[in-house]
Amino acid sequence: MVKVLRKKVVREIRTSYLQYLSVILIAALAVTLFTGIYANYKNFDDRLNMVYEKTNMSDMIITYSGNDSKDEDFLKSLDLEYEKRIYLIAKSGTVGINIIVFDEGSKLNIPTEVSKDYNASDVLVDKNFLERRNINIGDTFDIEYSSYTFSLQVTGTMIHPEALDNSTYSNALIYVGIDAFKDAIRGMAGFLTDSIVNILYNQYVIKCDNCSDIIDKVNEYYESKENNNLLYVAERKNMPSNISIESDVIQAKKMLYVFPVIFYLVAVLIILTSISQLINKEKMNIGIMKSFGYTNREILNHYMSIIISLCLLGSIIGIVLGPLIIPKVMNTKYKYLYQLPQYSVSFFRVEYLFSVLILIIVGVLTSYFVCKEEIHKKPAESLRGENSAKMREIFFEKTALFNKIPLTIRMALRNMRRKISRTLMVVLGLMGCSALLVCGFGIDNTLNYGLNLEIDELITSDISIGYQDSVSKEEALSKIDGVELVEEYSELGITLKKDKIISSSLFLLPDNSQIFNIDYSNEGFVLSSKVADEINAKVGDEVEIIYGNNTYYGKVNKIVDLCITQGVFISKTNIDIEFHPNAAWLKTTNRDVYDSVVDEVKKINNIDSVISNQGLHDRLDNITSTIRVMTMTIKIFAILLAIVVLYNLALLNFDERTRDIATLKVLGFNRIEIGTSLTFEILFSTLIGSLIGLLFGMPLLKAVLSINENPLLTYIYHIDGLTYLYTILLTCGVSIIINTIFAYLTKKVKMVESLKSVD
Amino acid sequence: MSKIVLKNITKEYGSGETKVLALNDVNFEVSSGELVVVLGASGAGKSTLLNILGGMDQATKGSYYVDDIDVTKLNDRELSLFRRKKVGFVFQFYNLMPNLTALENVMLSEQTVKEHLDSKEALRLVGLENRMSNFPSKLSGGEQQRVSIARAIVKKPSLLLCDEPTGALDSKTGKSIIKLLKEISKNEGQIVIIVTHNASIQYIANRVIKLSDGKIIENIKVDNPKEVDEIEW
Fold first, then answer.
1. Is A106 helix (H, G, I), strand (E, B) or coil?
2. Is the CB of residue A163 less than 8 Å from the CB of residue A98?
3. Which residues 117-146 of A are in CB contact (within 8 Å) with B?
4. Closest residue of A to B105, CA-based?
5. For a FRET experiment, which of A376, A589, B56, B204 has its CA 20 to 30 Å from that of B109?
6. Under an 8 A CB cutoff, do B100 and A665 touch?
7. How much is the pLDDT for A546?
8. Secondary structure string (H, E, C) spanning A481-516
9. What is the ipTM of this complex?
10. At what angle do helices A721-745 and A420-451 cross, to 10 degrees?
11. If interface means Cβ-Cβ distance under 8 Å, which residues of chain B face chain A?
């Protein structure tokens, strides 16, 4: 570019910096979001991989029942690095305990941050669990596993790659050396210790490069066996111990596909408006440059370089702010949920440049299409500087109604029509903002609605209990102080069939339940909506239930929205299955007795799980914490988007109408009267954009939640009426604040100078 | 019966070494029905004087009375009201609202005061009865200036200030505009002050004020001004 034009670029930006601030801001916002979300994902993923690498985490796992030497021969034939180990799901009092028994010299899935050098005589316990429970090294755990009971004395602490989950409801992990384990059970097993230990081996942890192929081979091998002893085979990302953290990593990545896209689209709009405005102002200068002999390319480069400079400036801000802010915000949640190495900021990733490049390409293309027409005009045409678009009355303006509207408002309405591309920008920008706000608030609504509907209205138990066996405990439960009502039911694993075949649960409920508040008294089944959707069943359709060797047919009586409990519900008397309760709901006399009742329930034999209503709320809050952090981010960015779009429009409007403002001042209009005209135009566009945006809130909400699916929770999409009201109030509020500032600025418009300028 | 009086009006811009004296001890009086032409080279202080007369700028020193109101003592809000009630402006570049029709532009001014002409009547007075529903972009320069005049006179101001009203027009159109302004001063009894470079206009004025370097160098009352058709443009 010609040197003097380069100077003009710098001066142009310097003198009209306010005008271009919105381009910088939106560029910064788009890049901040992209780099921030990407940095968060990479950071999270890297930290997880760091743990996996440090601990030599296996790539897949096979869990089986019953030792078979042929299984190991098969694995050997695959020429893989593997280890055989004991993995027990036990309990200590009321606490769930997972026990990994390792052999001397074990190299796979080893612990990290171990408090001491360890060997096969050590018992290492998850560090976070010890701290949470106030347990010290030297303390003893009394373990119950099946019919065995034994004690393990803690000799050290660790972090294990299969116990990165910090959540209070997840089981604790104890990493026990084989010698320590044998010592622990010797008292009970005596000379049979070695034999028992051999029987307990039930897992292979395996390193592999192409795990999906290996999984296919493993499945093939076990299916071909006469006695298939395979319980499950899973890649690392599907291992029960790691599925939660792995799905969080995937969610962190998926966020990249939603929000940055919206902001890049708005960036196009803002660049489009700003460059149009610039070219409009510069028509005369373009004519002058052309008359001096500058080529079209030189002139085009000149204007495009302004946009490139602005995009670059915004991008630099974004590259700094994104990785600095978003991972930090998200890490507050990750830190709470997982044990991972320290989070560190990384400003230099090639992918960041990709986001900048996209923005610049978007900016260059937009500027090119805007400049193209003006550049190809003859110099004389540009020098004529005829800017005013021809106005023409449209039908509405000829009506009596329009003539009753105050003149300042008529001016605003016509200005919106005259500057249609700019009006469109506000409408589209505000549509995005309003859709984001509805989405943000709507996610909260959806989560709260689903949980409240199920916990407080449809299944109104105060405490839920799962049994280890299928023997009634009604008598014992009824005797607990504070228990008002006990309702036992049975949850059975079934196969459900209609258009598709799925695994599901069948709930056999007591007649006239006072807790399950859905009418299931008629023959036929009540289905949860998720299950109904999966098999494509509607009310009145016949479905097939396969349980054991029997098949049961029935019509769907009702479909209910449930977010936690999924399956088929029927009265125990309406189906020919013998009723053996394996779960119960309790109602207590009041909330204050929750904890004491839970403690008493745990003392009853063969209780598998017990959780109070409050505990369930806490657990679900934990599960939805990422989503809730995300909704807050969505809301903040939506407001920022509104500010940038409205600021840009208000500034353009103010700039363009400075002459009108000055004339109105000269005619004796006061600041409020002038401000009303300015405010009306933007407020009206805001309202239109916001109202249309409301319609897109639900689709966006579904899109966002679909990338945040959680196996433990089904979303019952719901948006409160108040959400729509808040959205309109927020967008209009931002609009009013920005316009009030600009209305105030009319005071600074100098009547004299404005009136001297030529149109 | 309106009257304006300027006593020792001084206007300074900047300070220290960059201080510029735009108006220096300006004194004159004008009574209603007078058409005053202010002449002077560029930088003589014509526009500064017009801005002070119109309440768009305040004098650094001195007093300026319109119908016994000291305009130099008014605050921002009072100045707005002053412009609204007492002053009509005609600009060199018309300054019509591009989004309003000719009639609406005049109504915009009409609606600011209680006592006013009918907007259609004002447009009829300037000969635009057939162009009322046209937007400014559809009007010629002369027509736009007529709308601007109609907008100024519709509120029956005591003072009609015209800043180079013919500056952007050809001679024929310019003459017709000046003729119109002269008729307004004669028939409506308003004070009309025209600031211009065009020396020919001085011959139709009742009073000619010549400015040089911010000072009045001539203030001549003309007893028998010429008719517009008699002057060479």
1. coil
2. yes
3. none
4. A407
5. B204
6. no
7. 82
8. CCEEEEEEEEEEEEEEECCCEEEEEEEEECCCCCCE
9. 0.78
10. 140
11. 47, 51, 54, 56-57, 76-77, 80-85, 87, 89, 91, 93, 95, 97-101, 104, 107-109, 111-112, 133, 135-138, 151, 163
Smallest Cβ–Cβ distance between B112 and the set A390, A418, A669 belongs to A669
Q: How far apart are CA A322 and CA A354, in angstroms?
A: 14
Strand-pair partners of A710: A713
pTM over 0.90: no
Give bridge partners of residue A150 from the DSSP assignment.
Answer: A143
Inform me whether the C-beta atom of residue A669 falls under 8 Å from chain B C-beta atoms.
yes
Residue A258 near residue A353 (C-beta atoms within 8 A): no
Q: Give pLDDT tens digits for A601-652.
A: 888 888 878 888 888 888 777 777 777 777 887 788 888 888 888 888 888 7
Asked if A759 and B93 come within 8 Å (Cβ–Cβ), the reply is yes
Interface test with B, best of A394, A407, A423, A744 (most B CBs within 10 A): A407
CATH of domain B31-58+83-230: 3.40.50.300
Q: What share of chain B is helix, strand, coil (3-state, %, to 5)?
A: 35, 30, 35
DSSP string covering A635-691? HHHHHHHHHHHHHHHHHHHHHHTHHHHHHHHHTT--HHHHHHHHHHHHHHHHHHHHH
- What span, in angstroms and rounded, lies between the C-alpha atoms of A324 and A346? 8
Give pLDDT tens digits for A645-683.
888 888 878 877 888 888 888 888 888 888 888 888 888
Inter-chain residue contact B56 with A666, CB threshold 8 Å:
yes
Question: Could you tell me which chain B residue has the CA closest to the CA of A414?
Answer: B99
A718-726 contacts: CB < 8 A, separation 24 or more? Answer: A718/A442, A718/A445, A718/A446, A718/A449, A718/A450, A719/A438, A719/A441, A719/A442, A719/A445, A719/A446, A720/A441, A720/A445, A720/A449, A723/A437, A723/A438, A723/A441, A723/A442, A723/A445, A723/A697, A724/A438, A724/A694, A724/A697, A726/A437, A726/A441
- Tokens found for residue B15: 């300070």
Given a cut of 80, whether residue A526 has pLDDT beyond it is yes
